């Protein structure tokens, strides 16, 4: 069994101004950690994050029980002071549901239909295609994200300029997700989660192995059009307040033998976007190498590869919009063929 976790981030670049008027200083509210005269989940989270720290004084609104120390007991007690049920504005909860017509996105690449799945919060909305053989772009089968849009400062969704991302194995295989399930609808304030599962199948739009071989790079026979004894589950998770989708994929080997495979991601931006790859920049060079180990930096996990992403930057009608894929696999690389951008996880396409 192997896990692969990536983030799909959508960003809309905008600016905003704030104005206020004040007549006298309002009295501090118990539990109002951010001082905005409202007690909500942000305050509860802030109090919980301060667990074990001393209160700033007798008037510290975080110290509910007045014992001089901020603890999780204060956070729990403050839930009763929240202005809204569950401490969250329902409009700011993450949500997962089966799509109806009003849920669908607009834009030049919007492909969703009623019966697909919606994952959204106050910052973004994505559409996950329902299961079945519904050939669209690089994806022969459903279960993948096919539409994505951030929200602007008014909360309105922007036009969709992303075609599809699809997981891959051994360069030419992909997931045939035969089941899509809402694991958590988000109503409990926890992340909304949709999981898709099924066996592997062949990618039919392009023949990446032929492109690799045409450039003189060797490809093992075990990576070329071979049926694999695996089950694949991909779970899409969106938390309230986040501007990214967490995509967590598990590959389970159902045979008794070791199964060496390449793990890849097929990306098709297609909209009015420019593709960006670390170590290469904008444009679509046919092959890129992994970034040198000398570019790694210290991080909480130890050492991190700064090249663990690819991105798309909007132009013309998509100006101001950016999205990309961020992963946790060091020494990854990418190549392009037939207008498709392919990330090869943990391997350098060029040695």
Helix content: under 10%
Order of helices and strands: EHHEEEEEEEEEEHEEEEEEEEEEEE
Structural class of the helices, strands and pairings? mainly beta
| Low-confidence segments | 13-23
Number of strands: 23
The gross shape turns out to be globular
* Number of helical elements: 3
In words, what does this structure look like?
This protein is mainly beta and 351 residues long. The chain has 3 helices and 23 strands. It has a 15-stranded antiparallel sheet that branches. A 4-stranded antiparallel sheet has the order 2-3-4-7, with no helix packed on it. The longest helix is centred in the N-terminal third of the chain and has 9 residues, at 41-49. It is globular and about 75 Å long.
What is the compact description of this entry?
By secondary structure, the chain is mainly β. The protein has three helices and 23 strands.
What are its keywords?
single chain, 351 residues, mainly beta, 15-stranded antiparallel sheet, 4-stranded antiparallel sheet, globular
């Amino acid at each position: 069994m192997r896990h692969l976790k990536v983030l799909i981030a959508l960003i809309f670049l905008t600016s905003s101004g704030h104005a206020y008027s004040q007549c006298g200083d309002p009295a501090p509210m118990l539990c109002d950690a951010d001082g905005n005269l409202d007690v909500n989940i942000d305050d509860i989270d802030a109090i919980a994050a301060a667990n074990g720290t001393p209160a700033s004084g007798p008037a510290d609104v975080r110290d509910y029980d007045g014992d001089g120390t901020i603890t999780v007991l204060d956070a729990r007690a403050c839930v009763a002071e929240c202005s809204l049920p569950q401490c969250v504005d329902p409009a700011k909860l993450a949500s997962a549901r089966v799509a109806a017509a009003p849920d669908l996105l607009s834009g030049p690449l919007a492909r969703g239909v009623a019966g697909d799945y919606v994952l959204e919060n106050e910052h973004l909305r994505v559409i996950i295609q329902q299961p079945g053989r519904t050939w669209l772009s690089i994806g022969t089968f459903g279960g993948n994200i096919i539409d994505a849009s951030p929200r602007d400062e008014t909360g309105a969704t922007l036009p969709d300029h992303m075609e599809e991302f699809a997981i891959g194995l051994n360069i030419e295989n992909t997931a045939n997700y035969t089941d899509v399930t809402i694991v958590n609808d988000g109503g409990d304030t926890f992340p909304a989660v949709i999981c898709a599962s099924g066996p592997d199948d062949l990618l039919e739009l392009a023949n990446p192995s032929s492109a690799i071989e045409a450039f003189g790079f060797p490809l093992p026979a075990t990576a070329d059009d071979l049926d694999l004894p695996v089950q694949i589950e991909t779970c899409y998770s969106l938390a309230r307040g986040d501007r990214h989708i967490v995509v967590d994929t598990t590959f389970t080997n159902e045979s008794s033998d070791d199964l060496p495979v390449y793990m890849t991601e097929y990306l098709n931006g297609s909209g009015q976007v420019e593709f960006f790859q670390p170590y290469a920049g904008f444009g679509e060079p046919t092959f890129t190498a992994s970034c040198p180990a000398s570019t790694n930096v210290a991080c909480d996990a130890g050492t991190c590869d700064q090249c663990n992403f690819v991105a798309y930057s909007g132009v013309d009608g998509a100006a101001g919009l950016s999205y990309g894929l961020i992963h946790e696999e060091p020494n990854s690389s990418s190549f392009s063929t037939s207008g498709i951008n392919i990330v090869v996880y943990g391997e350098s396409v060029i040695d």
